[in-house]
Amino acid sequence: MPTTLQPRRQPERRSASSLGAKLIAILLILILLVVLLWDWNWFKPLLESRASAALNRPVTIANLDVKLRWHPWIIVDDIVVANPPEMTPEMPDGSLASVGQLSVHINPWALFDGKVVLPDLIIDRLRGDLRPAPSGAGNWVLDLPPGDPNQPGPTIDIGTLSIIDGTAHVLDPAHKADFVLTAHTENADAGAEAKIIITADGRYSAQAITAKLIGGAVLGLRDPANPYKIDFTAANGATKIALNGTLLDPLRFGGANASLELQGNDLAALFPLTNIPLPETPPYKLKGMLDYSEQKIRFTDFHGVVGSSDLGGDLYYLPRKDRPEITANLVSQKVVFADLAGFIGAPPGKDGAANDTKQQKAARDKQEAKATLLPDQPINLPKLRAADMHVSYKAERIETDDLPLDNIIAVLDIVDGKLTMKPLSFAVGTGAIALNIALDGQQDQVHAVADIDFRKVDLGHILKKSTIFRGTGVIAGSGRIDTTGNSLKTMLGRGDGQLKLFMTGGDLSAILIDLAGLDLGNALLSAIGIPRRTDLRCMIADFGLKDGQVDTRTLLLDTTEANVIGSGAINLTDEKIDYKLKTEPKHFNIGSLPAPIIIKGPLKSPSVAPEYKSLALRGAAAAILGVVATPLAALIPTVQLGLGDDNDCVALLKTVGAPPSATKPKGKSKGKGG
User: Fold this and answer.
1) In whole angstroms, what is the distance from residue 583 CA to residue 520 CA?
2) Would you put residue 202 in left (φ > 0), alpha (ψ -120 to 50) or beta?
3) Whole-model pTM?
4) Each residue's pLDDT tens digit, 564-595
5) pLDDT of amino acid 612
6) How many secondary structure helices (H) and strands (E) does the chain include?
7) What is the dihedral of CA 96, 99, 105, 107, to 10 degrees?
8) What share of the chain is helix, strand, coil (3-state, %, to 5)?
9) Residues 160, 222 contacting (CB under 8 angstroms)
10) Which pairs from 192-200 meet CB under 8 Å and 24+ separation?
11) I need a surface site. Which of 71, 314, 344, 402 has the fewest CB within 10 A?
């Protein structure tokens, strides 16, 4: 029988091995094809979509590439961020900004810790065109989607930032700005790190601006013991800023330790740069330390000069969405009163000051040449509403040629356009003049209310600067004004209110009383010191203010030499005065002319002359006092409040206000022919 052969199994094994080899070959071919055909641009639509959503503005890119490393590089070419839809294209591509190439060196392993760590970031051919849209909002203002406060995003740390050829044009008519920013990095010198240099050149606030910032190229991943160095200088017109020091954790505003120096012709010129509303001032130079903590920018321990005055203290700036908040504690050892003129709308500074400018001297000369006296510069309402401020100020000594003021204490608050000064106090010898002022600047016309108290003001101190007149005594009283307007002149010209002043005891130079009554003989004797003083029993001044018209209710000066009575009015709207001073001597004087003194004309330069056409006969002092008896009697409680119960004015007023029979001397009346 033939032998039966069994089938061999080896070919099956050979077939399986061949299939496996084919599969491996196919897989290798596929991998090779993926390597050869892979294009990272497949992810470009996803990247554009995510970037557009993050900025809420269309973002396009031309090319995406990734270089695989342990720490890979992501390279993006021709990034374009579009303008807002409402904006007519101003650049050829109608964009807000573009980057020729962005190279990002990323540490992917830090993502597991919730961090984005970029050891290197290179920006090449950065271009920007920043300008307002038709709505007025800047095209650089991005309407970013709100974040979830419960899910904060990852922290970002940038190691070295490199900028190659960066340029941006900034146009902002609202701030009268048109300038160009440039940015680039420089390689490290021997023993030093690389630098970022940013410059600005053009115009800001209608004045030339140049600025330069030099900082380190390494932003993050920095040892806290080696903080970020910064050197910044800027000049905007006459304003100069210099900042030099270090920043802690600059990407997250961890703090600062830097010296800040400010110099310029007017502190008010800082407003466009800082948004801090300040009055016009003479030239200044201030230097202090700049810091940042608790979300506040702090300018501390600063000192320097403003005009001929010194100024020091601390200032804290809290940025807020609606209005910044500024808190300041300021002190001066010496303040020249002329340097404060800007607070009332007058040109500040003093002629002959070492740092006086031609512009401010010309402004003072122009004000002096005006026929009017009151400053008419309008209150800047946008500045009044621009920030909330809390300021305390104390000047230890005041220098002034005309006013008898010794020091200043002021506490100022501005909240949402409403200003209060409570108090604004001036020391006068052992007494004081204190004001409480409230301005409501929320409307187009400012509403102002001011109360003033005269607290035991020393007459001798008031007359101290006079070379002729002397006197002693204490003045007390109060005043009030309620008005609207946008300048000091307008406010006084529309005001309603009153002023009451009282004085008792003391004495005055006799020449002052004699000249008021044209008592020429005694005036000559008084001028050579015979007698030098006349006792003062009482002085009462009561004025009413209605629609800018000051009317005299009572003006009485009672001395041992004479009684002086005033009448008339002052028109603050037209700045004119029409006033009469009548003196009634209490004894016979040779050479006296019983004519009233007329003060009339512009408030700035009135004429003073006797009223020759209406020479009045002398009457009894009691009869003259009786004319003003009714209003005087009503003043007794006010006089007591200002001077105390025991004073000559109260006694005089009681006598003046009594019925005629009460003032007759005691004794039997004589009959006819008796």
Assistant:
1) 13
2) left
3) 0.77
4) 888 999 999 999 999 888 877 765 554 455 56
5) 59
6) 13, 31
7) 20
8) 25, 45, 30
9) no
10) 193/217, 193/218, 194/160, 194/162, 194/218, 196/161, 196/163, 200/234
11) 402
